[in-house]
Amino acid sequence: MLQYKNFKFIDGGVCAAAGFTAAGINARIKPNSTKNDMALIYCDTKCTAAALYTQNKVQGAPITVTKQHLSDHTAQAVIVNSGNANTCNPNGIEIAQQACELTAKALNIPADDVIVASTGVIGQKLSIAPFEQNIPTLAKTLSSTGNNEACTAIMTTDTRQKQFAVEFQLDGKTCHIGGMSKGSGMINPNMATMLAFITTDVKISAAMLDKALREVNAVTYNMVSVDGDTSTNDMVTLLSSGHAENPEITAETDFYAIFKDALYAVMMNLARETARDGEGATKLMECTVKNAHDYPTAKTVAKSVINSALLKAAIFAADANWGRILCAIGYAEASFDIAKVSVELSSKAGAVTVCENGSGVDFSEDFAYKILSEDEIVITINLNEGSSTATAWGCDLTYDYVKINAEYRS
Amino acid sequence: MLQYKNFKFIDGGVCAAAGFTAAGINARIKPNSTKNDMALIYCDTKCTAAALYTQNKVQGAPITVTKQHLSDHTAQAVIVNSGNANTCNPNGIEIAQQACELTAKALNIPADDVIVASTGVIGQKLSIAPFEQNIPTLAKTLSSTGNNEACTAIMTTDTRQKQFAVEFQLDGKTCHIGGMSKGSGMINPNMATMLAFITTDVKISAAMLDKALREVNAVTYNMVSVDGDTSTNDMVTLLSSGHAENPEITAETDFYAIFKDALYAVMMNLARETARDGEGATKLMECTVKNAHDYPTAKTVAKSVINSALLKAAIFAADANWGRILCAIGYAEASFDIAKVSVELSSKAGAVTVCENGSGVDFSEDFAYKILSEDEIVITINLNEGSSTATAWGCDLTYDYVKINAEYRS
Q: Residue by residue, what is the 3-state secondary structure of chain B?
C-alpha cells in the first residue's frame, strides 16, 4: 500500500462505507471451480451511481445491460461473476438481464437498479442455472464483513485480493471510500478497466460523482498496462449511499477536492496492485515522466516505456538495459527533444542515473543489478522541457506470463 | 518460401544481381563473438540508391551518416556490423564516418558512396579497431558467392539466414532482384525496418526506385511485428547497378509494375521469414483482413491481431481461443461493425470457422487444435463491409522470447 496525503487506510473494502454489505459464493460457473466465483454487493438505500466502460468495440453483454440500468444514475446492488465473460454469446444479453432480475427479486428492488458484470473466458456459453441456484443464498449471507468473500469471487488469474478503503472527514462528518478490483491479464485499460467496484457514503451529486470518477480513473487505472490488451469487459463503478450526511457536494468545492483525493488514494492503490499482480509478474514497474511540456506527452512516453516487451523482459532479469528504455521513449508518439532526456533507475536499494542528454553515462552494473533485483522498480524519465508529470504502472514479462496464457482456457 | 506470381526464385541473395559481390568476417565486435559480425557489399559501378529509415526519435549514428551519404541517391558499397548498434554513444557519428572512410579507402571509392549500418546492443561504446583490422580483408575477399558469409554477419538473435532472389525478364533482358535481412526482436517496423539490403541490376531512375521501395515496404516489412518494439536502427536500402541494360524505368509503366512485383516477391518473403524467426517463435502467424471498407482499416485490424500478446501465447499452445482474436479486433483503432465480423483459422491441416456475425459458432476443438499445431497459422478475418485487404505477419509468444530477452546483454 502506498500512502497518499495522510489518508487513513482502513479494512473493509467495499463494505467500509456506511450502508454497504457484500457476499461471495462458489457458484460453479466453471464446473470444476473450487473458489468463489459469484459476488453480490448491496446498499440499504438507493445510491447515486457513476461508471466507466471499456472502449473495446467488442463489449460483453453485461456492459450493455449495466449501461441501460445506469442511465438514470442510480443503482442499489451489483451482481458479478468470474469464470465466464458472457461476451460474444448469442443469448448473452438475456442471461445478463435474467441475472439482474434474479438479484432484484432476492433483494426486493427494481431490476434496473442492479449492476451486472462478468469476467473470464470470452465466447463461451453461460447458463442462468448458477445464478438461479446461488443468488438467493448470496442475498441471505450479505454482511458488513462480506468484502473478503466478494473480493475472492471476482478473481480470475489474480493471485491476491485487491481491496482498499480510506476514512476521512468532510465538514466534521466521518466519510469512507472503499473498493475492490480484479485484473491480471488483458490489461491495458482505455477508459474504465478490468472490474472495479467502489463504494462511498459521501453525499455527492450524480454529476460530481461522475466527474470525480473520470478524473481519477484517467490517472490511475488508465495508467496501468500488463500486456497492452484492452479487455472487452472493463468496468469500474462508483456507488454513493450518502449516509455520511455531509452537505451534498454539487460543485468543485474544497470538499470535492478532498473527496477526489480520497478516491485517488483508493484507486491509485488498486491500480498499482493490479500492475503488481500482472499475470506472471515478479516486479511492479513504475514509470514517472517529468518536466514534459504537457501532460499528454508525459503520459504517452510513460505508457510507451511501461508497455515495452523488451524492457519488461530485461527488468525480469534485473538487467539495466537502458537502451531499451531510450528506444521505447523514442517510438512514443509524442513530440520532444530526445537529446535532452535523462533516465534514472531506482528502488529501495538506491538510485542510478543511466542516461543523460540522450546518451549513456558510466554507471556500476553491479549496483544497477542490485537496484533492479528489488520487487518495486521506479524508472524516472526527465524530458527537461516543461513542468508536466505522469506516472504509469506495469510489471515485468516472465515465463509465467506465457505459461498462464498458453493454458488459460484448459 | 512463398511463391508469388510465378517469379523464378534463385540462389545468390544480395549477389544475385549483376555487378554485386559481398563478404563477411568475424571482426570480434563483441570480444567473445565466434560468428561473422561484419559484412561488406560492393558493386562494380556506382549505383542508384533508395533507402527507408526507422521513425524512432532515437536513431543510431549509422542512420544519420547514411542519410547524408544517400542525399545524392547514389552509393557503391555497404559496410555493416552486428553486435553493437552504435546508438546513444557520444562518439557514434565519428565511428560511423570512420567506418565509411576505411571502406572507401579499401575500395578506392568516395566515402559518401558508402552506406553504413549497425545492429546489436544500444548504448555500448563501439571501437573503430575492428573496422581498421577487418575492412581491408573484407575488400580482398569480396566474391559473387559471398552472400552467405555476409548474411551470417548481420544476424544477432536470428536463428537462420534470410535471403531471397528472383530472376525475371524486362523487354527481353534478364533481370534480378536479391536481398538479405536480419531481425528477430525489437520488431515493429515503422517505415523501414530491421536491416535489409536489396540489390538489383534493373536500370531504373532514382525517383522510381524510391517509389517502388516505399510502396513495397508498406505492405511487407511494415506489416511485420514480433513484439511491438520499433528499433532505433531500422534501415532498408535498395541499390541498382543498371547492368541488366533494360530500357530505364522512369515512370509507372508496365515494366515498373513487373519490377515492383519482383521486389514484392523478395521483400514479402524476407518479411515473412523475419516474422517466422521472431525471438523464441515456434510458429509463423499470418493475419489477413478482407472486405474492409478501406486499406487503413484492414491494415490496422491485421496489425492489432498480430500484436496481441494474449493471442500469441494462445497460438503457442495451439489453443483456439478466438475470443482473444475478437478482443484484439475490437480494440483496433479503426471503424467497422463488429457484428458483421467472421473469423477463420487455417493451416496445412485444414480450416475452421470460429466466429460469425461477431459471435461464436460451434466447432470441433480437436480439429482446431490440429490446425493450430502446424507451424504456419493463417487467421482470416472477414469484415464484410467493402473490398480492401491487408496481410500482416507475426509469431507466437513463447518462453524462449522471455529467455532471449532476459539474457540478451550478458
A: CCCCCCCEEECCHHHCCCCEEEEEECCCCCCCCCCCCEEEEEEEEEEEEEEEEECCCCCCHHHHHHHHHCCCCEEEEEEEEECECCCCCCCHHHHHHHHHHHHHHHHCCCHHHEEEEEECCCCCCCCCHHHHHHHHHHHHCCECCCHHHHHHHCCCCCCCCCEEEEEEEECCEEEEEEEEEECCCCCCCCECCCEEEEEECCCECHHHHHHHHHHHHHHCHHHECCCCCCCCCCEEEEEECCCCCCCCECCCCHHHHHHHHHHHHHHHHHHHHHHHCCCCCCCEEEEEEEEECCHHHHHHHHHHHHCCHHHHHHHHCCCCCHHHHHHHHHHCCCCCCHHHCEEEEEECCEEEEEEECCEECCCCHHHHHHHHCCCEEEEEEECCCCCEEEEEEEECCCHHHHHHHHCCCC
By CA distance, what is A233's nearest residue in B?
A: B327
Grid coordinates given for B350: 485444414
DSSP-assigned letter for residue A113: G
Residue B191 is predicted with a pLDDT of 36
Nearest-angstrom CA–CA distance, B184 and B58: 19
Closest partner residue to B327 (CB to CB) among A186, A310, A327 is A186
Q: Calculate ∠ Cα A113-A116-A117, nearest 5°.
A: 155
Is residue A81 classed as helix, strand or coil in its secondary structure?
Answer: strand
Q: Rounded distance, CA B61 to CA B86, Å? A: 6
Whole-angstrom distance, CA of residue B8 vs CA of residue B323: 40
Residues paired with residue A174 on neighbouring β-strands, in sequence order: A169
Cross-chain residue pair B230–A58, CB shorter than 8 Å: no
Q: Helix, strand or coil for residue A409?
A: coil
- Cβ neighbours of residue B127 under 8 Å, at least 6 residues apart? B95
Which of helix, strand or coil describes residue A10? Answer: coil
Whether B58 sits inside 8 A of A229 (CB atoms) is no
Instruction: Yes or no: say if B233 and B9 are a contact pair by the CB < 8 Å rule.
Output: no
- Whether this model's ipTM surpasses 0.90 comes out as no
H-helix or E-strand containing A305? Answer: helix A295-307
In whole angstroms, give the CA distance from residue A371 to residue A365: 10
- Which of B405, B407, B408, B409 is the best mutation test for A, with the most CBs of A within 10 A? B405
Cell numbers describing residue A285: 514497474
Min Cα–Cα distance to chain B from A237, Å: 21
Task: Give the confidence band of B197 by pLDDT, cuts at 50, 70, 90.
Answer: confident
Residue type, B396: D
Between chains, do A55 and B331 touch, taking CB under 8 Å as contact? yes
Q: Of A156, A193, A237, A380, which is the active-site residue?
A: A193
Closest partner residue to B329 among A58, A355, A402, by Cβ?
A58
pLDDT score, position B267: 87
State how beta strands B284-292 and B376-382 pair. Answer: parallel
At residue A71, the 3 state secondary structure works out as: coil
Residues of A in contact with B90 (CB under 8 A): 359-360
B331 vs A56, A88, A330: nearest CB: A56
* Cell representation of residue A140: 441471505
Q: What is the mean pLDDT of chain A?
A: 90
Q: Is residue A190's pLDDT more than 50?
A: no
Asked whether the beta carbons of residue A359 and residue B90 sit closer than 8 angstroms, the reply is yes
| Spatial separation of the C-alpha atoms in residues B239 and B263, rounded to whole Å | 12
Cβ atoms of residues B47 and B17 within 8 Å: no
CB A232 within 8 A of CB A59: yes
Question: By the 8 A CB rule, do A396 and A283 touch?
Answer: yes
Which residues in chain A have Cβ-Cβ distances shorter than 8 Å to B405?
A: 309-310, 313-314, 397
The DSSP 8-state label assigned to residue A280 in this structure reads T
Least CB-CB distance to B358: which of A88, A231, A336? A88
Look at residue B186 and tell me whether its pLDDT is greater than 80. no
